Amino acid sequence: MENTYLLEKDFKELLKEQNAYREVISLTHWDMRTKIPHKGVEQRSEVVGFLAEKLHQLETSEKMKYFIDVLKDNTDDEIIKKTLAECEKNYERNRKIPHDEYREYVMLQSKSEAVWQEARQKADFALFQPYLEQLVEYNKKFANYWGYEVNIYDALLHNYEPGVTVKTLDRVFPELRKSLTDLLEFINNSNVKPDSSLLTAHFPKEDQKAFSVEILKKMGYDFLSGRLDETIHPFAIGLNLNDVRITTRYDEEDFRMAVFGTIHEGGHALYEQNLNPNLVNTPLAEGTSMGIHESQSLFWENFVGRSKAFWESNYDLFKAYAPDQFKNIPVEDFYQAVNIVKPSLIRIEADELTYPLHIMVRYELEKALINGDVPVKDLPHLWNEKMNDYLGIKPSTDREGVLQDIHWAGGDFGYFPSYALGYMYAAQLNNAFSKNKNIEKIITLGDYEPIRNWLKEHIHQYGKMKKPLEIIEDVTNEQLNPDHLVRYLTNKYKEIYKL
Amino acid sequence: MENTYLLEKDFKELLKEQNAYREVISLTHWDMRTKIPHKGVEQRSEVVGFLAEKLHQLETSEKMKYFIDVLKDNTDDEIIKKTLAECEKNYERNRKIPHDEYREYVMLQSKSEAVWQEARQKADFALFQPYLEQLVEYNKKFANYWGYEVNIYDALLHNYEPGVTVKTLDRVFPELRKSLTDLLEFINNSNVKPDSSLLTAHFPKEDQKAFSVEILKKMGYDFLSGRLDETIHPFAIGLNLNDVRITTRYDEEDFRMAVFGTIHEGGHALYEQNLNPNLVNTPLAEGTSMGIHESQSLFWENFVGRSKAFWESNYDLFKAYAPDQFKNIPVEDFYQAVNIVKPSLIRIEADELTYPLHIMVRYELEKALINGDVPVKDLPHLWNEKMNDYLGIKPSTDREGVLQDIHWAGGDFGYFPSYALGYMYAAQLNNAFSKNKNIEKIITLGDYEPIRNWLKEHIHQYGKMKKPLEIIEDVTNEQLNPDHLVRYLTNKYKEIYKL
């Protein structure tokens, strides 16, 4: 047998190479979404494609296979063990896809995103339809290559939320939907109608930014290991754990976009900034899943940032930056206004309560698509029907309907459920946190360190060392349970809408 | 013999790979100098090192050698022919350096830059000395690997200005020096003392930026293929010809830094934006040498941007952005003030006339270092003496003396002469341009298209298709000739200083 120490050393070199590609790919994505000049995009796309292929080659190389085989049963190092498992998963999944199909698919993705943008702008689904049909076919094919136990859609879910299946979602989503639509009905019938007009005062970008930065600092986001930029579609991205960037979008007529957006992305960023440094240069040095990532952003955005305690303690700070019109508005009115519930067509503008319903519309449609239960051409019609069923409103064009999100154009099937899962996880984590600690009191005092430390201790530090459901079960001592989210929303909105 | 068409196709694939690395390395450098958060630098340095090594491996690969050997005499494509010659040059030069020495040297460079920063801050040359000694030794060793005909320093010059040798420099520099120091003496004795106090009005950054952007647009810099950012040490960088970025630095108490700085970097950027698109994805798609690059930036900065015609036509625009104090200052006074000649210690703050003297100080010292004529430890002393000889002033600390520039810390020996060469080239180009066109009139009219087009036609489009001296001789019908610069400076300053 070879010398394990030397083998581990060589293996780490390979991981470092992979990581170098990952970091520049991330930098390139960040740059393309925030800084790149218009005409530079075309050439850059080729560069990104090249780098992605290099990384893919390393992940599926014979060398990688060799390390997996030889080291797997010969290491005592827990990080290396988990790293090997992660590498093996990637190796197996990637090797199952024939190289030429992968190439064609990558090209289809980038072409489809461009077509989708045009289709969305023109509100013309027919333009996008043939591309979406091909994307669905590829995803079905890949799902079959990867394999699954019960439902073909499980194979795609696995890419974003390992351990979560159609069975799980079909258990929790209907229950959640029922509770949310009941609550929505009560709210629609309530006599309380918070005044939303106060939200739309002209609020200069620079002032919104200054306030957002103050809040990010209070959250513990480290600006020496990150930065805040502007973009059209906000995101957080970790280049390495000392370079975790966030982006936001400013609407000078509606400060909520930037204020809650930066808190949300700040939540993502705290996850990546607080990973265990020993995971650096391994594929474990990132959030364990899309759902757990979203639980962190939503924990901060909703459970902290939209709480009454948060605004009671930060309203003076807010008013110091905000336009004069807020001067005479009591914090209670302000709190109610930023928590108005109102069904709307665009997912990313949805309120806390109706948001999960948007996700369910998408989940049911993509599950049906992948299972071959509905053809792509019926999507616009089905979308509008479901929106009407779940939210009581109907898009007048496909731009506000089936064409609104980029995910399918990028081939991301199985991704949407993470948003709702993350929300349920967040509520469940909030419940666990609140067993020993008074979150309201902490928020009122304005020093969020106990929250940040708790999240770091139980979630952030692990990166991919723990699977998503492992984290949830370890921290909350139960399985995924939608009741916590329902209870949270019920309590909150009963108070606001005097139900 | 193999099918040439297929071979060329494969060769182009290899070039594309190299180019992808070049583009991300450039992006990474840009990011590190403009955007990266403080703590992200360490990890990023490793990533850059990795990418540089990958590129180096491709440049020196057996595959590359194969293409060079097989294709060289079997292609009719002029671009491929010149590309092969460029690849062969890189192959030969890089292969001559043993791999482990290259690695050690790269590590020494990055370490030395860090030490230099500390030494500069503390004005403590002794800290930096041992590193500089090693850097000099490596460069001597490399120069011997590469080979040279007359002077060992020629081998280093070749990296930055192929075709230019010590013999050339020792012909033109003394002549130039004599003329400049004579002119300087006249100026020092002149009764005309332009009032410089007007330059230092507080000038808000945003206004300086707005004015600079207007000038860049007038120059023809394409913001759809570029962007302007802030940095400490301004630079221009071409990621690809549709993504050529410039950076600048704002001093709110001295607008000259940003205004002339952006014109300078804009001149570099125009070069890269106007390359022949057929050169994309070859190593020819960049400026042909440091000297020719500098000729472009200096052409715009000095021959356009510091001319009387420029300020006569742009002074109203300037005053629209500038603080009120300029309102009552006649353009003649303003023109004289931005052209004040005054020997100073810091190269990058030097005026047009004394700038080449700074370069000569460095050239003579590094030539002596590489030839083993002076030991590193004597540098501070020799530097101060030469400054006194050439400029009549002496640094009081090494921070303002031998430690001011980063070049040696990065191992860049042979680079400095490019700055003075670029200046002489620019004057020679200006002379050639002025034979058929009236540059003053064009500048006065404010539409610089004839200038931009002429530079594009004679210089920019070629990229590395032509060698630096080939360009100069083709355009000006003579060899490098310092007289044009001397005449330009003499005429200009005779008028300003009434000599």
TrEMBL record, chains A, B:
Ligand binding (Zn(2+)): 264, 268, 294
EC numbers: 3.4.17.19
Cofactor needs: Zn(2+)
Enzyme class: hydrolase
This protein's record includes keyword Metal-binding: yes
Catalytic activity of the protein: Release of a C-terminal amino acid with broad specificity, except for -Pro
Pfam families assigned: Peptidase_M32 (PF02074)
Classification via SUPFAM superfamilies: Metalloproteases ('zincins'), catalytic domain
Family: Belongs to the peptidase M32 family.
The name this protein goes by in its record: Metal-dependent carboxypeptidase
Organism the protein comes from: Virgibacillus indicus
